[in-house]
Amino acid sequence: MPRETFNVISDDKRQRIYISAAKIFARDGFAKANTSEIAKDANISKGSLYDYFENKEDLYLTVSTHAISESRKNIDSIIDHSMNFFDQLKSIFLQGLKFVIENREYAQLYANISTSGMEDFAKKLTLKVEKHTADYYKNALKKGISDGIIRPDIDIKMVAFIINSLYVILMISVVSEHYRIRLGEYFEVEDAEIEKEIESKIDALVGIIRMSLENRKETKS
Amino acid sequence: MPRETFNVISDDKRQRIYISAAKIFARDGFAKANTSEIAKDANISKGSLYDYFENKEDLYLTVSTHAISESRKNIDSIIDHSMNFFDQLKSIFLQGLKFVIENREYAQLYANISTSGMEDFAKKLTLKVEKHTADYYKNALKKGISDGIIRPDIDIKMVAFIINSLYVILMISVVSEHYRIRLGEYFEVEDAEIEKEIESKIDALVGIIRMSLENRKETKS
Amino acid sequence: MPRETFNVISDDKRQRIYISAAKIFARDGFAKANTSEIAKDANISKGSLYDYFENKEDLYLTVSTHAISESRKNIDSIIDHSMNFFDQLKSIFLQGLKFVIENREYAQLYANISTSGMEDFAKKLTLKVEKHTADYYKNALKKGISDGIIRPDIDIKMVAFIINSLYVILMISVVSEHYRIRLGEYFEVEDAEIEKEIESKIDALVGIIRMSLENRKETKS
Amino acid sequence: MPRETFNVISDDKRQRIYISAAKIFARDGFAKANTSEIAKDANISKGSLYDYFENKEDLYLTVSTHAISESRKNIDSIIDHSMNFFDQLKSIFLQGLKFVIENREYAQLYANISTSGMEDFAKKLTLKVEKHTADYYKNALKKGISDGIIRPDIDIKMVAFIINSLYVILMISVVSEHYRIRLGEYFEVEDAEIEKEIESKIDALVGIIRMSLENRKETKS
DNA sequence: CATGAATGAGCATTCATTCAT
DNA sequence: AATGAATGAATGCTCATTCAT
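^ inputs. structure came back:
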């Protein structure tokens, strides 16, 4: 929904806008964020911002969509469908963690969509994000079953939901103060160690998932 | 942190303030919420609001703390430590769902703590909420192990974290537009059916958890 | 349409607002007028202005309605229905002129309603102003006819329209630069003498009207 | 005052600018009108507009002058100085009405000059418009007197002023919401019938003027 | 000559907070 | 203790005008 002009400007300028808007929206949330500050931070004028976007909401939606799209591209780029499902999972969790650490604002923008007052944004953004991921998990599970490495009696929808829920919570635990503190409490680690802790626990987490899903007959044979 | 006067006023007035503030903060989020509207909705004057609370943040903190405390009391009241762990889990999930449906605002207030701009609130609120829950799960798991119904080789912290994460996501999926849409996509149901869907899936979810944790030797014997 | 609060404040403050708003709206027109300047000029805060009025339009409408109502009250107060119609006319024109000179802003507010972009205001204001005046003229003319001093064959509606049109143009000629220059050109006088010129010509104008309307039979008899 | 470039461009482009600017200034008034919209409507760039005109005011002045000049040319073209004065009057009113109906924007531009905030414009525009008309009426009246068809005892300046005032009000009553409503109230007709009503009343209006001015001796003889 | 992206002063309106009554 | 009028900083957005291309 950004105006035509936004697609015409230099890549550099467009990037600065993405970065500044992501940073400030991520830090302050939609309502508190200040469009003037975003313009100043991106080193453009307020007027230009409104040449590129219809209004604050349009800017927010655009930058959030961009953030989500980048996150997805990042994950998609490392998925190897020929890999064993559980190895894929591990790659996804590790790569996701890496991306979130390097792009905290993007994860925060994602987290904010679930907030009060963001219902309109959720209606416009959520489906396009989640459907892709849900479909991936469901298909990968089906394939795992037909490949004989996953138990055929699982509830695919439920398992997909559970796996992605754990992914979401882990990633948000990097960028949200609340979830950081919560994770620190569960794992009994200091704030500064959260990222390392998460990374070190991914193996174990995928192990638990594997233990629940793996086809035992397969294992025995 | 509310002023002393807040504890002196009639229970009815205090309740009205809790209800109105919860409703409006839950609907709009902290930044967008309007203190005048809260005062009007609670049928008190703006001046009184500022007699009871230092500022908007104090009001928010107070009402959120109240909401979280109510949620906890509700869960605690139905926990029966003598029950089988998995049955306790099922009770907790069902009771939590019921409470969230009846007190959507409370769950929304909880969800909002994880938002951008709420870091200060998280620092003040999160620990007191999560520690209690984390401790419960860890102790219950330990007891399950010593009772022989839970495999002794599990990572207690991790399992506690996973179980509560699923609880949190399920509850937030009732009240957050984003998570509702997401859950609808995973389970392939319409928005209107979300609550029923969650309720109907709790059995299966606890079943999966049980399958992963249950002590097989015990089962075999 | 002003808010309740506007009726509650001190008369002095209310007057200051009327005066400042009338002055600035009259000087700049609706679009160019600055609400901050009005507040400052009235010695109140911007916030208060918006406590009293919903928005700029509401303020404009309120102050214009007040201006028109004052103008009318002023004329009504000197109309003596027992007087000869032509003498009434003369009183009205003279009194109107005096009021306009002393309350230029009020006349300017009236003049502005006819401007481009003021259609919405006209729809809300015009009828209530003009109906009263139109009715007065029509009734006074009817009475003049039945009293035998006005020719019975006149087109009452047309004559009422003509008389009021001349009144309107004369009054606006005091306050509108355009109409001042125009009147100066017709009467061949300098700008500084406009008011005196108008006053001195009222006799002649009413004389012309009388000449057109007076019942000649009556005169002859 | 437009820049030289404005006289160099194609007639078509110049016309488009006149039409678009007249339309938008007439609709919104000077302050509210948007130069970007005018440029877009005229199918030229904003930059070009500022190549042709110094600023918004220059554009306004130029287009208003053009509008007034067109109005005058239109009237002048049908005046037949050899005609009886009252027949000339009738022609002028009828032709003026026709022109206003077909060129509403031009009449609105004229009407707007009398508005608050337009004083500078009035100083630059009014005289050149009104002097021509005032002179015409004064001369025509003098000729009428010397021809013996108009009473020699009239106040020529006053009569010229009155006649033109009625012309002005009638014409503005077509294009100004305020004056339309007002006229509708005096003549007791619906808005949709205003134009027809004015046309049908021109005969009567000129009749009244004739009755006041006509030389009775002439008539009797 | 023409273009339209860029600028930033300017403005209507909101809202947390204070304080006189 | 309660009230709600008063305050003014803050903010989203507009638009006349400029200027590099």
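Residues 5, 8-9, 44-48, 51 of chain A lie near DNA strand E (CB under 10 Å from a C1'). Chains A and C do not touch (no CB pair under 8 Å).
thumbs up if we can close this ticket
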